[in-house]
Design brief:
The structure is a homodimer of 333-residue chains.
Chain A lengths: L4 E6 L4 H12 L4 E8 L7 E4 L2 E7 L10 E4 L3 H13 L3 E4 L15 H8 L5 E3 L3 H17 L1 E10 L5 H16 L31 H14 L5 E8 L5 E10 L5 H10 L3 E3 L11 H4 L5 E8 L6 E9 L2 H15 L1
Parallel strand pairs in A: 1-2, 1-5, 2-4, 5-6, 6-7, 8-9, 11-12
Antiparallel strand pairs in A: 3-4, 8-10, 10-13, 12-13
């Protein structure tokens, strides 16, 4: 496209990078020139971009010359080092790492929720953590309906959240099992096949993991509710691609199940799947490959007058990462 | 054993029945004579009891003649029909089905919690649902420490909870995947391999499942707290044998993390596994084959002054079913 942008995808060989390349094509994002970057280890590899093959280049100080849009999904260290260089070169950086999310000067954006905040960027727009995005999508319309007071969230997180190595671990461990071999844990702290690991990211003071702290801080920033009470538990499960979250949400004003369902239904990016009598509710297998987050099991919390329970599943690589990043780029295009 | 009891295991070919036979031996339960019953379909099969083989008999009106102890794990219908006949024959019935749990005349017993209640039986003692047992084990010492006010529980339930067919479904579906075949769902409403199904037992009014309602009613009965506020979510996960539950528990009086840990630690049947800095926390793979329920990830809930979060894993077939039943029998022996 003659009028398209010169784009860099940083972390192009990773799980999110691969999905980014696929979605740029699927969404007909105007691309004039596409360059793919990754670690020196991956340099020289080829990645697919539609029918084309693009040779992966190693990141360097001069990588961003002429680049107008840089989509980073290479990890926090790489973002900290190279995103400022990309900005200096004149690029808009959309960063999917944890590097800048809580920087007060950097907007943290889910377009359906706080798209306007993206416009205040000074070169970098941060994309929230995958679990945050899938959790906050239904929280926003519920907050608008009744003002959130307290959120208790328990996540069931897919291995793709740990990147291609996470996916390979579940795959290889499951194949070892199928061959009747003793399973040796790959990548994760413990075996993930047929197991659950209540440990994502590093443990911090107070017994919470980094993943849990991110969920709290990022939801507060996105919703502009710095004191919102949130109690998080995050768990890795043997599922490949979509994250699911069991949410208990209390509001200042009562929101009936019918009103919550209507609010979810109207909200762009959410799809209500809630017909239990016909065995219809969100499941990670159904959320995989979908742009929308699926929300269901919407029911009154019988233990608290102003609370509801619900269950949401969203593709961790799409809305949880690559799609959200491209949506930010579309918004600012 | 000359002084042992004449015992009937009803549902002997099922997952819980098989574990019951194994544990009767392992625990040296005094057995003089053991008879194995199952549906007509399974009659004539052999089951192992230590080094012996026992021929499975079909259930009939005269099955319980001379039986002193009948351990039922054959499903609610069978229990409703045959448990009263067993009682009439003079047997003590320990029933693992849902048939009598909420009957005010039948004690619902977890020996470590309300063993004394078992003594008031009129022939039948009910064993709680597996998820209830694993959840209520840490709730009891916490209640004793600070008086429970509200419990929010999200379960991650193994396929063994659905019996041998549930186990076969995860196994067969995972093997189809390993062979590169299209997976056709077995037994569960949907594919369970690499998926999550937020649907256990039938849906009821209000959008809760039978499994969720059981969790509420049974915890209230066991703890003798008929009004305890409990908010349940139950989810089937691709794990073979142990259930895990993420629990948020609020108490009237503040219970510090240290006090909760000490209370859990002292409680028979619980083992604290909570050393996150060394990657030690409860996981279903570690709980499998253990008599104790494992509790960890104990941390203050930053969203509520008097609440803590924790995570518990317990072998669904042992403490969740067969072991709890045998413990009741030992108590009354």
């Amino acid at each position: 496209m003659a009028n398209g942008k010169k784009i860099a995808v940083v972390g192009a060989t990773g799980a999110v990078g691969q999905t980014t390349l696929k979605l740029l094509k699927q969404r007909n994002f105007p691309v004039r020139d596409l360059r793919a970057f990754a670690s020196a280890r991956s340099a020289g590899k080829k990645v697919k971009f539609g029918d084309d093959e693009v040779t992966v280049e190693p990141l360097g100080a001069d990588s961003f010359k002429g680049i107008e849009l840089a989509l980073f999904s290479a990890g926090s260290e790489q973002s900290r080092e190279f995103a400022p260089l990309a900005v200096k070169s004149g690029a808009l950086v959309i960063d999917k790492s944890n590097a800048f999310r809580m920087d007060p000067a950097v907007p943290l954006v889910v377009p359906e929720i706080n798209g306007a905040a993206a416009r205040s960027h000074r070169g970098i727009v941060a994309c929230p953590n995958c679990t945050t995005i899938v959790t906050v999508m239904p929280l926003k319309p519920l907050h608008d309906a009744g003002k959130l007071r307290r959120v208790i969230a328990t996540s069931f997180q897919a291995v793709s959240g740990a990147g291609v190595n996470g996916v390979a671990a579940l795959r290889e461990e499951s194949l070892m099992w199928a061959r009747g071999e003793k399973i040796t844990a790959r990548h994760f702290q413990h075996q993930i096949a047929f197991n659950l690991i209540p440990h994502i990211d590093k443990f911090t003071e107070g017994g919470y993991t980094g993943e849990e702290i991110k969920l709290v801080n990022e939801i507060r920033k996105i919703l502009e509710l710095p004191d919102l009470a949130i109690s998080p538990t995050t768990v890795r499960v043997p599922v490949f691609t979509a994250h699911s979250i069991s949410v208990n949400a209390e509001t200042e004003r009562k929101v009936s199940v019918a009103a919550a369902r209507a609010a979810f239904d109207r909200f762009a990016g959410l799809r209500v799947v809630d017909d239990p009598m016909h065995n219809r509710y969100p499941m990670p297998l159904d959320a995989e490959g979908q742009d929308d987050c699926l929300v269901g099991r919407i029911r009154e919390d019988l233990s608290c007058p102003n609370a509801i329970n619900f269950w949401v599943s969203g593709d961790q690589l799409r809305k949880g990462a690559a799609l959200n990043g491209i949506q930010i780029a579309e918004l600012l295009n």
